[in-house]
Every structure is written in C-alpha cells, then in structure tokens.
Amino acid sequence: MAGPQVLCSQTDSSAVVSRLQVGVTGGYMLHEVDFTPSVNVQTLPGRSYGLALRYFDKQLVGFQAEVNYVEAGWEETYGGESTRYERRTRYAELQLLTQFSIGRGLVQPLIQLGPYVSVPLSEEELLPADFNTGTNTEPDNSYRGRPLPGRINYGLRAGVGLNVELGPVTLQVDGRYLQGFSNLIKPGESQASTSIRQGYGGQAALFFAL
Question: Domain of life here (predicted)?
C-alpha cells in the first residue's frame, strides 16, 4: 500500500497546472503628458474599470488580456501658478500582458509587461477663468480651448505585485507604470511638437477559475 501512495503523491506534486480565469479589474493612476517644448505639467488622478481574461501554464508564465474604461489626461499651470488648465480624456483601452508569477504558495510575487492601445471616447477641459476675457493670450496654434484630435494612442505598461491564491479565486494586486509611444496631438497641429502619455498607480483584480 505504501508504494502506490508514494507514487500518487509524487505524480500530484509534479502535475502540470494550467488555468483559465476571468476577472474584474479596478485601478487608480496619476496621469500626465510629457510635452516638447516643456510645459509645467501636474499629475491628474483617474480611475479605471474593466474585465480581464488570464491563462496560466504551470503557475509560472501567464498571459493576461484586459479591456478597460480609463479616465486620463493632464493638468498644467502657465502664465503664473494661478493660471490652471486641465484636460480629461476617457478611453476604451485594450492591453495584453505577459506575466511571470513566482512560487506556488498562497502569496505569489509577480512581474508583468505588455503593450496597450487606447481609443478616445470623450474629453473635457477646464479653462482658466480669464481665458475669454482678453487678459489671457494664447498662440494661434494653441491646443487650449480647442478639441483634441481623436487619435488612437499606444504604448507599454509594466507592473510589479502579487497574486493571492484562494482556491478557485485569485486576488491580484500590482503597481503599474504607463509609458506612451505615440503623440496625443499630431506634430505640427499645435505648439507641442511631442505630447506623450505617462502615468503611475495601482490596480486590483479578482479572478475566477473557469
């Protein structure tokens, strides 16, 4: 009896574990835009919500796809610290992440990296109080007071965090950094020759095994 029991135990411990999970996500990030020529930009907080699908092979390497509703944008001051301008954009965002999860215990550290693509859905801007009074002067090619072109933008997102395995349910928490590769405003259409998204924050997801 001892022989079969030992063999069964060894087989179980070395079994290949593959998992397909679906989940819901929620996040909070501080967004900004890197402009050239330089602009005095402040971070703008934004939330995100979405759905995710994750596949893991051998509990080590995983692939995670997310579709999120994202609030982003930037805030800036110019002509003195009292002159404040804000632009908020809402996106439908798709991202594909490769994830490396370490260990097989209750808590598993993780690293993930992958591209994202964002499609603008809507935008709004907060203009300074003196914008239309004649005391505020803008160059003819300023983006302030004008709608932004609905340009699809893309870039890379990286994260470091952990998975907490609770049977068929997995809680994932990670800190994230976003680096855009494309301009929000097409070069030549405003005084900004480059306008690249950036951001940092965190996200939590709850996954359920299928």
Answer: Bacteria
Tokens for 1, please give them.
């009896």
> In terms of Cα–Cα distance, which of 173, 174, 205, 176 is closest to 21?
205
The pLDDT of residue 124 is 93
Q: Based on the number of CB atoms within 10 Å of its own CB, is 188 exposed (0-12), middle (13-18) or buried (19 or more)?
A: exposed
Query: pTM for the full model?
Result: 0.83
- Amino acid present at 49: Y
Answer yes or no: are the C-beta atoms of 108 and 162 closer than 8 Å.
Answer: yes
Q: Exposed, middle or buried by CB within 10 Å (0-12, 13-18, 19+), for 208?
A: exposed
Quickly tell me which residue has 């029991």 as its tokens. 5
Chunked mean pLDDT (size 10), the chain, 210 residues: 45 52 97 94 96 84 95 86 85 96 86 97 87 65 85 96 91 97 92 94 95
Give the β-pairing of 41-42 and 153-166.
Answer: unpaired
Q: Closest Cα partner for 135 from 77, 192, 79, 190?
A: 79
Quote the tokens at residue 175.
């800190």
